[in-house]
Each structure stands twice: as structure tokens, then as C-alpha cells.
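Methods — Computational structure assignment.
A single polypeptide chain was analysed. Its primary sequence is given first, followed by the predicted tertiary structure written as C-alpha cells.
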Amino acid sequence: MDRVILTMKWGTLYSAEYVNVLFNAAKANMDGDFTFVCLTDDAEGIDPGVVTHPIPDIGLPQSAWKAGAWPKLTVFCSDLYGLKGRALFIDLDTVISGDLSEMFDFPGAFVCLDSCPWRYKSGPARTGTGIFAFEIGGVGAIVDHFVGDMSRLLADYGNEQDFLHGEFSKLGFGEIQYWPDDWLQSFKYHLRQPLILDRILQPRVPTAKILCFHGRPRPIDLIDPPVGNWDKFPHYGRGQVPWMVDYWTRFGGTLKD
């Protein structure tokens, strides 16, 4: 089975350095051969070991590039630059802290994270696209369905996660599957210290395969922190987080002077 790790970079929020760190971290946490691919609008500065392609054009309006992560849907195109095999998509603001190989073997036409236990402890699954797996070219009907009724679907759903949650099972691929809870952690919900304690204690060290960031803070805030609070009030974080700095520099990232 061919194995492909996919990521995507557009705009200026994340630099090429994020791509390179993710690539190096993936190499350190994969057993056997794989191809690392970045779909991007700007390949400058990306490691030559990364295969780069333009983000496929499916006619997204400019507003859809700024709200939600609708461009992610393009990875499901029936022909994605001739790539074949099982793909594991990983957001750039992700820390890889364990073996990724078995994530390629987890069954399902579309496997993703369930953020419900993080946010609500119990209740129905909530689809998240920080890291997901699928057969390249095997679920192209997702894109066809979206493109065929784009204006309505953009209006009905706030982001690509909600669209996939609401529409995927209607397309004949079966139900969405979710990663085991202990394979993934959220910085906000698992590692950040409780209120008040976060003023005196550093965030906990990740123990899962994957650490996901969503919103503020972003990884760079823990590496090259701004003056004062890098977290969102009333939460508080200050200064560098040593384990995050170690991860970033170990896999080729640089620090500000």
C-alpha cells in the first residue's frame, strides 16, 4: 500500500518552516516508505524532500478561503495529481509525538477526529479535520457533491468540518469513522493547566500520537512568545514552553534572535 502524508498551506498565517518541521517530525515517526505532499499557493522555502503541488481549483469564492478551511475539500478530488494509496492529512499546526504508521491501517473510507469528548465530555460525535485518513481518489463524490451545490452548502455549513459531518454519509461511503480517543490530544483541553494554576504551572507534556492546536494559542506562541499573555483570556500563558521549543528545534525549526 502506498502511503501519503498530506498537508496544506495557503495565505501567510503559517510559514514554510511549519511544513518543514511537520515533514521532519513525520519522518521520525514513520516506519517504512511514504511520500510527503504539501498543496500550497507558495512553495518557496519548503524542503526539497516535500512534493509540492498547487491547491486544486474547484471554484471556491474568495470568502471561503478566509472563513473555515474549505480548501481542504480539494484533497478528495478524484484525480489528485496522479497520487495513489492511503492518505493521512495533517494540519500544519500539529505536533507529531508518536508512531503514525498504524493510522494508515485504521479502517474506514473517511477517518477523522471526534472533538466531542474534548469539548463536551459526552454526546454525539463532532467531526474534526485536524487529522484524517482516506483513500486517494476514492471519495471524489464529496467534491462533486459540493461543487454541484456550492452556494447552498457554503450557506448551510459554517466550515468544511460541519459540511463533511452533515453530508458524507449521504454519499454511499458508509459512516464516518473516528480515531481512538487515546491517539490524539488537544492542547487546550488536555495540556493547558486549569484557570489560576495556568499562571504558575507550565502546560503538561503530550502523551498521545498527535497533539492538535485549534485557535489561540498557536504553536509559534509557545516557541517565540509575545510579551505578556499568549493564551486567550481568562486563560493565561507566558514565556516559552520548553517541550514545544525542543520539538520545534529538533525537527529543524528556528527561533527568533
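Note: The chain has eight helices and ten strands.
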